[in-house]
Design brief:
The protein is α/β, with parallel strands linked by helices and 581 residues long. It is 62% helix and 10% strand. Helix 4 packs antiparallel against helix 10.
């Protein structure tokens, strides 16, 4: 939790005023039993109606002032907790955006979502409750004991053994439940992961008739989480009954000793009532403290999870001496791979090994290979989604790690394998590529991406709504819009990572022709399983199990690369003359 305190800067005064007003409220509350004692001993016993009314007026005044202090304290506590949580969420979201793909792949989206939502909410609730009750409850407990001694020291000795016993119970249960709450939040991560997986893959689940199996898997995860929650809930639930028993034993001790002392005239009836009221105040505050301990325990467990995420170093950082180079934006960039190796995690096998080739400005490079051969891994190195573990990748002769990261990515237009659009309009999605692009630039990008025709056919045109993930569009339409989004940027390097798989051959051919005619002549990297999509590339790189087994033109590779020829023959198998006859 200490690591997160920096997000509370600027709220120090509010964080101080909230418990101060709560303790002020508690101070007025501690005077109530004394006033009640006076009502009994000096008003009711003496039959003085005027005094009774005056003392009742004092009780009402104490209640009104206490209420005002409580509302003020709640205001300051809420402002502090909500402000802290807002800053923490912003910092957490920014930090997640800065994490490298390797870290995000390792953590998984479910735990990232849980930590940014549920965990931060628990921290917010913990801060709110802490500011309101953490000082108030102990203040009332020990204040009640001190006030009891002012009434009668001998009878107040009961408080001396009750309060330590209560503290032992509360803090003992807290020590037992804190690690269990951490496990509970981890279990929640698992349930979130299964839920997210089923919601995103609901069509696949139904297509294969796996509803019952997935429901069983979800039920198993929920049952595990439920058992863990029941276990920690059972431990936490012991707090209220155990503390109630201890306090009631204290009240019994007070009444038994107080009755004798009233009978002997050493104590008055009002003083005994005051002592019982103080013991009851302790009970109420210990119940609050028990609930507070549960909340704080959850908050601390969640704060640790959030802090652990914030402690993960960003995956990609610019060199301290990095500066934007001078270049001609009107042409593509020269790209070179020098003995490139890539391993996603320390100790894991290499996904790419000793890749060497270059691309001149404006050239088209095709990347082809079997499934899992490393095609996407190769092109993901260009925008530095991952860093090489050996060798170097250069743009215009400069190592990518020496570029300012933001500047590097403005030079690259990336169209990923999965066409992803965001909720909004077509115009808003296209302007992800360039925020100030005018309609003319958007239509030019749509024309090049072969998307202008279907966008014009939409009732809203560029302002046609797009649902989350582009669910209201076909796969081919989504792919063409993501290509147009990348072209709006007018990138120097354009990466098409198997991004035309949903297009028919005629549209694919028209797209490739339009890319060659682009006025800003980007260096194009096309990842594809179709040899027809790569036949006219200036250079084709053939990957097999992370190695470049062939580099050359289409004609050269048909003669020299068995892997490429096998892929080509599987797609364009020649007809046997005997079968024709």
């Amino acid at each position: 939790m200490k690591r997160l305190l920096r997000y509370g800067r600027g709220y120090e005064l509010r964080a101080l005023l909230a418990p101060l007003f709560k303790m002020l409220e508690a101070s007025f509350e501690l005077f109530v039993p004394l006033v009640v004692a006076s009502v009994i001993d000096e008003g009711i016993k003496a039959g003085d109606t005027g005094r009774i009314l005056r003392l009742c007026g004092v009780l009402i005044l104490l209640a009104v002032v206490g209420l005002a202090c409580s509302v003020t304290a709640q205001y300051f506590a809420a402002k502090t907790a909500v402000g802290f949580a807002a800053r923490l969420r912003h910092a957490l979201f920014a930090h997640i955006q800065s994490l490298g793909f390797a870290a995000q792949d390792k953590l998984g989206p479910s735990t990232l979502i849980t930590r940014m939502t549920s965990d931060v909410n628990q921290v917010q609730n913990g801060i709110n409750m802490t500011l309101r009750l953490l000082l108030r409850s102990p203040f009332v407990v020990f204040g009640a004991m001190v006030m009891a001694f002012t009434v009668d020291a001998q009878a107040a000795m009961v408080f001396v053994w009750v309060i330590p016993a209560l503290c032992a119970v509360v803090f003992g249960i807290m020590a037992l439940t804190m690690p269990l709450y951490k496990r509970t939040q981890a279990g929640l991560d698992g349930v979130t992961a299964i839920t997210r997986e089923n919601l995103t893959g609901v069509r696949v689940v139904r297509a294969f008739g796996r509803e019952e199996a997935e429901a069983g898997r979800f039920e198993q995860a929920v049952d595990g989480l439920n058992r863990l929650q029941q276990r920690v809930g059972a431990l936490s639930g012991l707090t209220n009954p155990v503390t109630t028993v201890i306090v009631n034993l204290g009240i019994i001790a007070l009444l038994s000793t107080g009755a004798v002392q009233v009978d002997t005239g050493r104590l008055t009836q009002g003083q005994v009532v005051a002592l019982v009221n103080y013991m009851s105040q302790i009970l109420v505050e210990l119940v609050k403290m028990a609930n507070l301990i549960v909340t704080i325990t959850k908050a601390l467990a969640c704060a640790g999870r959030v802090a652990d995420l914030l402690d993960i170093a960003p995956g990609m950082e610019s060199s301290p001496t990095a500066a934007a180079p001078d270049f001609d934006r009107a042409q593509g960039g020269a790209v070179e791979f020098r003995d490139v190796c890539l391993a996603y995690h320390a100790g894991s096998g290499e996904s790419l090994r000793n890749i060497c080739f270059s691309a001149a400005p404006g050239e088209t490079v095709g990347i082809i290979g079997g499934t899992g051969s490393g095609k996407s891994s190769l092109v993901n190195l260009l925008p530095r989604f991952y860093d090489v573990t050996g060798g170097a990748v250069t743009l215009d002769g400069r190592d990518l790690r020496e570029w300012p990261l933001e500047e590097l990515r403005t030079q690259i237009g990336m169209v990923p394998q999965k066409a992803l659009l965001f909720a909004g309009t077509i115009r808003e999605n296209l302007r992800w590529g360039c925020g100030d692009a005018d309609d003319e630039a958007l239509w030019q990008a749509l024309e090049a991406a072969q998307a202008a025709e279907f966008v014009r056919a939409k009732p809203g045109g560029l302002d046609e709504p797009v649902e989350q993930g582009g669910r209201n569009l076909s796969g081919g339409q989504r792919q063409r819009l993501t290509i147009a989004r990348a072209l709006v940027r007018r990138p120097r390097v354009l990466i098409l990572d198997d991004s035309a798989s949903a297009l028919d051959f005629a549209t694919d051919a028209a797209l490739r022709k339009a890319l060659r005619a682009l006025p800003f002549s980007p260096t194009v990297f096309i990842v594809s399983q179709r040899t027809a999509s790569l036949q006219h590339a200036d250079r084709i790189v053939v990957l097999d199990e992370g190695e470049a087994v062939g580099i050359g033109t289409h004609a050269q590779l048909l003669e020299t690369c068995p892997v490429y020829k096998e892929i080509y023959d599987s797609q364009f198998k020649s007809v046997d003359e005997s079968e024709v006859e």
